[in-house]
Structure formats: structure tokens, C-alpha cells
Design goal:
The chain has 99 residues and is mostly helical. The chain has one domain. It is 73% helix and 0% strand. It is built from three helices and no strands. The protein is rod-shaped. The two termini are 14 Å apart.
Amino acid sequence: MRGLICGPKLAACGIVLSTWGVIMLAMLGIFFSTHSAVLLEDVPVTDDSIHQDGNPDRIYNLYNKVGYNCFIAAAIYVLFGAFSCCQMKLNKQKEYLVH
């Protein structure tokens, strides 16, 4: 069967992992975009630069960049999930042709 790369169990695992990745990263992207204070430790900033000029716009821009990166990673997981669904479909076709 042309295009078949992985078996049915690996394809199912890919679907589960990609579903979880999309949910988790989309939620993280939303929380970073809304500047959640709980996620301040995950923003790439040093302690000295937080209190440097008192302007929160620089921190908010870092929050937005991290949130944007989370949305990009979620989109990559969507592509991986679509690939896994195609592999699952090809495995079903192969099983149908054999019987």
C-alpha cells in the first residue's frame, strides 16, 4: 500500500498525542496571550529587567511572543494529527483489501 508509513497502533497513538497537544498548547497560548500572572516564570525574562523601567509593555510583548509560539506548536500538532488520521485510514483500506 503506497504511503503507508506506520501501523494502526502507532497511528492511534499519534491521534491521541496530537489531540492532547492541541488542547494543552491552545490553552497555554490563550493564557499567555491574556498575560496570566501565574505563567510569569515561563516568560524568558531576567529578574533585573522586570523592574528596569517600570514599563509592563516589554513583559506583555514577551507574553505575546510565547503565546504565539504556543499557537504555532498547536498548529504543528494539528498537522501531525491529520497525518495520523490519514495513516489510520490507509491501514483500514489495507485491512479491507486483505480480507
